[in-house]
Design goal:
- 41% of the residues lie in helices and 14% in strands.
- Strand 4, helix 7 and strand 5 form a beta-alpha-beta unit.
């Protein structure tokens, strides 16, 4: 078994540790402050970037009060799947999504986009900030710096966010060249992004508990007592949950 991909993931994670910890701490404090002050948390991404939105909500060891933002045509359950690539370039759709989302002043939204160039993600960030929310962008700065924006403003996601997290991956996301194959293999953004965001959630809960509030964390429903525990958590945070 060739371990080149695993080696590359290890290398990128080390680069994240070396360069992103201060930004990750700031992100955790933003999420904790919003939770402690009665505000709401959201996460959004298009296409495969949206997998991290699914990673962060309603799952074992995840935070109860994180809400995914979903938009028809932006996720991979549609057929043809190629439609998602066109939909995420649609002007105005990101604004519509934010207008239909109960996001407001001092709420926090994480928006994930590797390139940060497409209209929906940029529009979503701009409109969320117009509504008074704070935006955390998870992106790849090497890729984003190398491409032109597809947004009418000419800006990319990292330029319209309050805080930027770099996933430290390579340009174009896929990492491994193969002899005779023009496209690389082994995308890294999902595994690295999941590690970054889960680490941030863990730190967020530490900060929430240090402030004297119970941890808003799901227990596995496959452990004894899990169903009842989760039911109580959902009830406690009902005013900040929009996915039920």
């Amino acid at each position: 078994m060739n371990t080149q991909y695993l080696d590359e993931i290890s290398r990128i994670l080390q680069q994240v540790r070396l360069t992103q910890l201060p930004q990750m701490e700031k992100a955790a404090r933003m999420l904790a402050d919003a939770t402690l002050n009665g505000h709401n948390l959201f996460v959004f991404g298009c296409n495969h970037a949206g997998l991290l939105a699914m990673e962060m909500y309603y799952r074992t060891g995840g935070m109860v009060n994180i809400n995914p933002v979903r938009g028809p045509g932006l996720h991979l359950e549609i057929v043809p799947a190629t439609m998602t690539s066109q939909m995420e370039r649609m002007d105005g759709y990101g604004c519509l999504l934010m207008d239909m989302t109960p996001i407001g002043k001092d709420d926090v939204i994480i928006i994930h986009s590797v390139s940060g160039r497409n209209a929906v993600s940029v529009d979503a960030a701009i409109r969320a900030r117009e509504k008074g929310a704070r935006v955390i962008a998870l992106t790849n700065m090497e890729t984003s710096a190398a491409v032109e924006s597809r947004h009418k403003s000419g800006k990319k996601l990292y330029e319209v966010a309050d805080l930027v997290l770099d996933n430290c991956g390579c340009r174009g996301d896929a990492a491994l060249p193969l002899p005779g194959v023009p496209a690389k293999m082994g995308p890294t953004s999902t595994v690295i992004g999941a590690a970054v965001l889960n680490a941030i959630m863990c730190r967020t809960v530490e900060l929430i508990m240090a402030a004297g509030q119970d941890a808003p964390v799901f227990m596995s429903a496959n452990t004894d007592g899990g169903d009842e525990y989760n039911k109580n958590m959902l009830k406690k945070y009902a005013d900040h949950i929009f996915y039920m």
